[in-house]
């Protein structure tokens, strides 16, 4: 019997990764343009904390699916990598903000 490969249909992880990247980039640019105004940090830090928690929850959700769906590991692995790709970018943003 032939098995049919159906792609992993979950799209929320990519939307979450792209959404948090866009919002954090906007906040970073706003901070740079406003000459290191502390008001932007008052908005950015709570967003960063919530984004970290939500991304960790999504990461564990994807890891659970990665373990339990062996035929879809390639698709899930790509989604995990997309989610994790925000870490070095946001760390760079953090280093730049701390240097200003």
* Major beta-sheet overview: none
- Listing every helix as H and every strand as E from the N terminus to the C terminus, the arrangement reads HHHH
Please give the share of residues in helix. Answer: over 70%
What are the low-pLDDT stretches, counting only 5+ consecutive residues below 50?
A: none
Shape type: elongated
Number of helices: 4
Give the structural class. Answer: mainly alpha
Mean pLDDT: 90
Strands, total number = 0
- The N- to C-terminal Cα distance equals 62 Å
What amount of the residues lies in strands?
A: under 5%
> How large, in whole angstroms, is the Cα Rg?
17 Å
Please describe what this structure looks like:
The termini are far apart. This protein has helices at residues 12-33, 38-68, 73-84, 86-99. The chain is an all-alpha fold and 100 residues long. The longest helix is centred in the middle third of the chain and has 31 residues, at 38-68. Helix 1 runs parallel beside helix 3. It is elongated. The protein contains four helices and no strands.
